[in-house]
Design goal:
alpha+beta; four-stranded antiparallel sheet; 17 helices
């Protein structure tokens, strides 16, 4: 009897173990079937792809919700990949399967919609690239393939893909110190700046002209600081009205012809002097402007390093005649405010570039 009971106990124990093993087996089978890895495997992903997908819950969620895609892990492994743009990446790839995946990611991330080319990627990575000018960059590059990307963006942002005086835009004078007047932006013949003030005799080279009051205060501070270093920076030519510029320009045309006059004198309406924000500087010993006497002075050297600290920029730089349309003028400075002047100085920009990228933004 005891033996019979013992055998029964063993059988019960064995049965219990078998049932337990079956339960564990069923549990692990069900766990495997319900695992993300198993589900991904069922969709057709390889072990290697599953390893990549399982690095991020968002990737898993996307892969499980959608049909198998053999490009998914290629996109995931590229710098800049954003899961929220994955559908856009894949749609772009469907239409442009010859475009490298890193370029697709870059274009989609930056919302750049234009016919693909390697040049487009290079252009769009320039610091001063503007999406609104893509077509202009591309067209300019086609005609100037010898230029580097930085130079192409610089030129188009400076508007020299248009011939001077052929694409007139009315200057927005509401921009104040950042308004622009050049061979593309024109001031009205009736425009007279507000807040003009008469220059005191001690600061004037020849005559007591006028200049914007804020500009004048900045100039006087600069004058005094330069004076402490034994330098004297005088105002030779400040504000000019439209009519005054008309007389000056036409006098030069009569003397030298229009083509030559355009290289050193602004047509009426296109002169920065009409803004009240531009000043031609001189010293007590310089006698004129056209011979660039000022560019040889200690005062000029000081301005090169310090003018921006007071809000002024050298407007017509050496070697940038092709940008501004004017010969180099060491004496011509423009007030734009300390912040803008400092950015222009630190980044080595001309005002055209600064205006397009930081002010116009298009």
């Amino acid at each position: 009897m005891k033996k019979k009971k013992k055998r029964m106990s063993i059988k019960v124990t064995l049965l219990f173990i078998v049932i337990l093993l079956l339960m564990f087996g069923i549990y692990f089978i069900m766990k495997k079937i319900n695992s993300n890895e198993y589900k991904l495997k069922e969709k057709g992903y390889s072990d290697k792809e599953i390893t990549e997908i399982c690095k991020n819950n968002s990737y898993i969620e996307y892969a499980l919700k959608n049909n198998y895609n053999d490009k998914l892990t290629e996109f995931i492994n590229v710098d800049g990949f954003k899961i929220e743009f994955l559908d856009s990446y894949l749609n772009y790839y469907k239409e442009h399967d010859n475009v490298p995946i890193p370029d697709i990611i870059y274009l989609v991330n930056n919302d750049i919609n234009y016919e693909y080319s390697p040049i487009l990627i290079e252009l769009s990575k320039d610091k001063y690239f503007l999406k609104t000018r893509i077509e202009r960059y591309i067209n300019y590059q086609k005609n100037h393939s010898d230029l580097n990307i930085r130079e192409i963006v610089k030129r188009v942002n400076s508007d020299i893909d248009y011939d001077f005086y052929t694409n007139d835009i009315e200057s927005d004078t509401s921009l104040g110190f950042l308004m622009i007047a050049n061979k593309h932006y024109k001031l009205s013949s009736s425009y007279v700046p507000d807040n003009l003030i008469t220059i005191e005799s001690k600061y004037a080279k020849y005559y007591n002209g006028q200049v914007n009051a804020t500009v004048y205060e900045a100039y006087k501070k600069m004058y005094e600081d330069a004076k402490k270093e034994g330098l004297t920076i005088l105002i030779q030519s400040p504000y000019r009205s439209y009519d005054t510029q008309y007389s000056i320009y036409n006098g030069y045309v009569a003397r030298d012809g229009k083509a030559i006059a355009d290289t050193y004198s602004a047509r009426p309406g296109y002169s920065e002097h009409q803004t009240g924000l531009a000043i031609d500087f001189a010293t007590p010993t310089t006698t004129g402007l056209s011979n660039d006497e000022f560019g040889t002075t200690l005062e000029f050297n000081w301005l090169v390093n310090h003018a921006h600290e007071y809000g002024f920029i050298l407007r017509y730089k050496q070697s940038e005649e092709y940008i501004t349309g004017y010969m180099y003028e060491s004496w011509h400075y423009r007030y734009v405010g300390v912040d803008a002047a400092t950015t222009i100085y630190n980044e080595g920009l001309n005002f055209e570039e600064y205006f397009t990228y930081y002010v116009l933004k298009k």
